[in-house]
Every structure is written in structure tokens, then in C-alpha cells.
Design a protein that fits this description.
This protein is an alpha/beta fold and 258 residues long. Helices cover 19% and strands 36% of the residues.
Length: 258
């Protein structure tokens, strides 16, 4: 585990909950609850650990384990053993089965651009401190247990995000800051359990709303009442996370949880 990422997980949880959580790996299964996760297999060439994309990314199928190599092993399979004359009289089916299939490999551990401190990630790059990631690129920093993130910082357990920072369990959202359990939101900050919100700040349990401030259940309640309700919510979140290393309620089931 990256020590730098551990520190930033503490920073992010402190911002969201007023309490810093340590040992991020203990929360790994919870962070990945709704995130298509990459997984490790041994390289067909060296036996080294190679992380590959989740089945969701490729017709919900896993790759043939005997045809997987690491990004840094590509040169070992880049030269064809065939000669031009071998193609004489070949049919289209021959091209696929005799010439392409034997030399076709999937490359895991893919890295892009300048990067540092990237671990257990199937596809990542152009950033620093990335752990258990897939499709995480372009000016990314301190991202863990996430799938598809661009131009983001300090995001954990997220899927389909861009231009966002300091969030946990953010999905299909852009330009959100200090948010927790948010889906389909944009240009907003300090949201908890919100869906399809835009231009919001300080919202709890808001859905299909725009341009609200200090709102609970789509009703603006003012700073004082909002902070009182937020305190009660955060206390419950902290208690359950510390006790179970998980939270039963999330943005996808909050409407049916008691």
C-alpha cells in the first residue's frame, strides 16, 4: 500500500467526517462496493503479477489467463514468427486462427504518460499515488479503488468522475468537491447522499435539485439547522465505519433503508 495515499485518505475522511480514518485497506471491500474492480493474474511470459480490467469493460468477459502479459513485457511478443510467404493461399479464417490468435496477447499493468507510485492498477498514468485503479489518467493524484477518473484528486471508491476532489463513493459526476455518496451530480460541493443535483452547496438527501444552499430533502433549511442535521448524520456514519469498516446505506439504497 502506498504510504502517501494512506495519508491522503486520512485527510479526505477528516474533511468529510471530522475524523481521520487510517488503514485504508481495511475499507477496501466497502470502497469497491459499486466500482468495477481490476484483478490480478500471472503473466503468461514471466509469472509476475499483472492487473487487468474488470469484465464490465470487455463484454463482461474475463481474458484468457494464458494470453495475458504485462505492459513492460510487450517486446517479448511484438515480433511475428511468420514470414510473408506463409500467407500464400490463406483464407480469412486462417488469418484469424493460424496467424493472429497464436500471437495475440492482452497487455495489463498499462501505464500512460509520466507517473509515479502506481500499484495494483490495470490502467493508469499521468499522475501520482494511484492504487487499485482502472482507466485513471490525466493529472490525477491520490486515487484509490476507482474506475474511470480524469483530472481528479483525493478520490476513493469512485466510478465515472472528472474534475473532482476530496470525495468518497462518487459516481457519474463532474466538478464536485468534498462529497460523499453522490451520483449524477455536477458543479457542487459538500453533498451527502445526493443524486442528480447541479450547482448545489451543502446538501443532504437531495434529488433532482438545482442551485440550493443548506438543503435537506430538497428544502433549504438554513446554515444552523443544516449543520445540526449534518452532525447527527456524520456521527452515525463514523460510528458504523469504525465498527464495521463498512456502511450499509449508500446512494443506491438510501431510499429503502430504515
Amino acid at each position: 500500500m502506498l504510504s502517501e495515499l494512506e495519508k491522503e485518505f486520512e485527510t479526505t475522511t477528516k474533511l468529510l467526517f471530522g475524523t481521520a480514518f487510517s488503514s485504508i485497506e481495511h475499507y477496501g471491500p466497502w470502497l469497491l462496493r459499486h466500482v468495477p474492480a481490476s484483478y490480478p493474474v500471472p503473466s503468461a511470459k514471466s509469472g509476475k503479477e499483472v492487473w487487468v480490467p474488470p469484465p464490465l469493460n470487455y463484454m463482461r468477459k474475463r481474458f484468457n489467463r494464458s494470453k495475458i502479459i504485462s505492459f513492460d513485457e510487450m517486446e517479448q511478443v511484438s515480433i511475428s514468427p511468420f514470414k510473408p510467404e506463409d500467407l500464400n493461399g490463406a483464407t480469412l479464417n486462417d488469418l484469424r486462427t493460424k496467424f493472429v490468435k497464436p500471437i495475440a496477447y492482452y497487455c495489463g499493468n498499462f501505464r500512460y504518460g509520466e507517473h509515479s507510485n502506481v500499484e495494483q492498477s490495470s490502467g493508469a498514468g499521468a499522475g501520482i499515488n494511484l492504487f487499485q485503479c482502472e482507466d485513471v489518467y490525466l493529472d490525477v493524484k491520490n486515487i484509490g479503488y476507482s474506475n474511470y477518473a480524469l483530472y481528479c484528486e483525493n478520490m476513493f471508491g469512485c466510478h465515472g468522475i472528472s474534475h473532482s476532489k476530496y470525495g468518497i463513493h462518487i459516481y457519474n459526476s463532474t466538478n464536485v468537491t468534498r462529497c460523499f455518496e453522490v451520483d449524477g451530480c455536477s458543479n457542487s460541493s459538500d453533498l451527502y447522499f445526493c443524486h442528480n443535483c447541479e450547482g448545489m452547496s451543502n446538501g443532504i438527501l437531495c434529488f433532482n435539485a438545482k442551485n440550493l444552499r443548506y438543503a435537506v430533502g430538497n428544502m433549504e433549511v438554513g446554515p444552523e439547522k443544516f449543520m445540526r442535521i449534518k452532525k447527527m448524520l456524520v456521527e452515525r456514519i463514523v460510528h458504523e465505519l469504525k465498527e464495521k469498516k463498512s456502511l450499509n446505506t449508500d446512494i443506491f439504497n438510501v431510499g429503502v433503508h430504515k
